[in-house]
Write a structure and sequence with these properties.
alpha/beta, 241 residues, single chain, 7-stranded mixed β-sheet, 21% strand, globular, 9 helices, 39% helix
Length: 241
């Protein structure tokens, strides 16, 4: 059960503290996989909503020459982004109130962040609003029925999944899909995400620092789709008749 919802400045301060102490990130292979799922055309614009330290934007610029934009609530995260990717346009703001005109971006990403917003539906509507009619969006969201959590966490402790965030939500693949559609997005494809096999030294170092993730990666082939760790939804703006 979720307790009292913290206000936006409490959340911002908590993420500043966490980013100052260490990075929130996935493997390089993960960010490359997300971009591949989007099948982006080179040189187009991309907005990473809740971009953190800019890891997705780095690969968007490096692999596809994209015009990278990012927003995040954490000034500590944006400070790192500006140092590592000075050509990106970065804005500090809340994901439920994007400071951009309608139909601005060709591509939008939101990876493991929407579930932490104070208003999830409003966050979806804002991303749908600033996405171009022909654009595409990729959103990663966590499963409330992840098989490893059910077997290990719920069975062993009696508690459900947690990513130790100030505010978090979990849902099934169907529940998340309904929420995205209610917010003005049409889901065209859904991928299960159970971590990506390491393809570089940096990836292997990431797993070395997180040995439990390596175990989960090894178990991934045995996890049914609906019981995956997370889901990557590829969508577009819903066109009203």
């Amino acid at each position: 059960m979720q307790g009292k919802i913290p206000d936006i400045w409490q959340i911002s301060a908590e993420y500043d503290r966490r980013f100052s102490e260490g990075s929130f990130r996935e493997t390089d292979s993960f960010y490359q996989w997300v971009l591949k799922c989007l099948s982006p055309n080179p040189m187009k614009s991309i907005l990473d909503v809740s971009c953190g330290e800019g890891h997705l934007l780095k690969w968007a610029v490096r692999l596809y020459g994209m015009d990278g934009w990012g927003i995040d609530l954490s000034s500590a995260a944006l400070r790192v982004s500006r140092q590592s990717l000075p050509q990106a346009k970065l804005v500090r703001c809340d994901g439920i109130s994007l400071p951009f005109p309608d139909s601005t971006f060709d591509y939008i990403t939101n990876l493991g962040s929407l579930e932490h917003y104070t208003d999830v539906l409003r966050g979806i509507k804002e991303m749908a609003r600033v996405l171009k009619p022909e654009g595409k969006i990729a959103i990663l969201l966590p499963n409330s029925y992840y098989l490893i959590d059910i077997i290990w966490s719920v069975w062993r402790t009696g508690y459900g999944p947690s990513h130790q965030q100030p505010l978090e939500r979990f849902a099934t693949v169907g529940e998340w899909k309904n929420a995205l559609q209610n917010g003005g997005l049409e889901v065209v494809c859904t991928y299960a995400y159970n971590f990506r096999f390491p393809k570089s030294g940096a990836d292997w170092r990431w797993y070395k620092e997180r040995p439990s993730r390596l175990l989960k990666l090894l178990l991934a082939p045995f996890v049914p789709f609906n019981l995956a760790y997370s889901f990557l939804f590829i969508g577009r703006r819903k066109i009203c008749p």
